[in-house]
Amino acid sequence: MPTFCDESGDFGSGPKSSDHFHFAAVWFETIEEAQACRVVIDEVRRAENVRAGFVFHFAEISPEMRKAFLRGVSGQNFKFAVCTAEKRRAEAKGENLSRELIVNSVVGGVTASLVEYYHIAEGSKGSPLKERVTVHYHNNGDYIELIRRGFTAYASVRNPKARLVKKVSTERAESDNLVQLADMVCGAAKQNYEGERDLYRLIESKRLDGCKTWP
Length: 215
Hints:
The protein is an alpha/beta fold. It has a single domain (3-214), classed as Nucleotidyltransferase, domain 5, CATH 3.30.420. The protein is 43% helix and 20% strand. It contains 7 helices and 6 strands. Strands 5-4-1-2-3-6 form a 6-stranded mixed beta sheet, with helices on both faces. β4, α5 and β5 (165-171) form a beta-alpha-beta unit. The radius of gyration is 17 Å and the shape is globular. Pfam families: DUF3800. This is DUF3800 domain-containing protein.
């Protein structure tokens, strides 16, 4: 029952930072469904005539390839959640912006969407879930630590002394197709937020709780 995360924009709070910071998580109910999606992404590479190790990175590929990727995975069994920090709106409301506040807010929005499904999955499993979360590699350790704290904040119903999420780790996109999936979902959600809905419509039915914004 793995989860994969990525972001778009920067989580800085200064006047030169991006106006928005988007955070997305993709969730699979079973390991088998996750593996099946990895296979489909390999098939998209072959269909697009790119090398075996080609990395699907939303910001670096053509609109046509973005569509081919998202159409290819649209039949797979996954769900996703996205939250966007609207920094200028937060400032206008008097928020004292910091990196910690921005990251905590978007991670909190995403985990709030996921936790119900984590509990359902744990109930089906009949034992503590021990979810594993993989985050696209980032060289800022404080950022990764904030994500880790956000995901490990929820207790297991089966064992209140245990956490629903057992481990949060990082992985480079080239090492896992599903980190690339998180990147592509986040990119499509960002475009949707900006008013370009064509790509997002391909995966919209898989969203858990709409597209949240903060504040």
